[in-house]
């Protein structure tokens, strides 16, 4: 086998380990750039002391799991957080040396993404499946919309490689996880990692962080139309309300107080999706000076035939709101004829709202 030189010491490269070094730490923390004595694995044998001067700054150190998992294969991908557009772009490039899963010694691999906490259909994205290969090249970009700076601090991206099986359940090959706080806004970070065995998902995650989804709303006060233009652009990661794990969402808007009950607007229903695009705009004729006394109530619903529709979540923008909801409203009042677009988190409780359809 070829040699790998680390800290002036030459080591044989481990068989089948791709680009992983033969020395792989079980648990070690660097002290002044060097790794102290710990339990180490080298070519399947344990030894008390790693090579002198073996540093965590070695280019592929943190990307390599124990050698027992190296046979699962490697994955190349890149991540980009577009801060201005609240989007996380995940480009899945290729995999190499995947573990054979089928009788023919090959696999039908695809990649799926989840954001943790919250691994549900609402935030699952996946690539296409490539047939009969252990070295697939996807070059496919999957995008999460409605990603906030808070998400980038709090969430972790789970990337799993699976084998599609037409007649049985799809099989798991390997995974990796990337805490989003490792990414720098507006800078593409490229990864080349060894896949690991399946890691447990924390089922006890804080329920207070549970969300009903996100909605992208645009506001503009039009001097020409003498009215408020409300744009319902899209939703992301909506809560699933139907037995099939999806929803049939639509959005309603009200400008309150609404004495005459004439301010209701409603989008079209989008079938079987948790990430619908609406791109609809409604106009409320109102004097600019009267907007300060009003609030905009936006609710998302799941359409059901033959029974009452289910409330998914909502948001209220206005002078009595807080945080981003207040800032969005204030920026609209302050900037006539300027379209201002913002993502908002949907909540299950709206004080004073009428939650029946």
Automatic annotation (TrEMBL):
The organism's place on the tree of life at top rank: Eukaryota
Location of the C2 domain: 71-195, 211-344
Keywords assigned by UniProt, alphabetized: Calcium, Metal-binding, Repeat
Entry-linked CDD domains: C2A_Rabphilin_Doc2, C2B_Rabphilin_Doc2
GO MF annotation terms: metal ion binding
GO cellular component, one term: presynapse
Pfam families: C2 (PF00168)
GO biological process, one term: spontaneous neurotransmitter secretion
Name of the featured protein: Double C2 domain beta
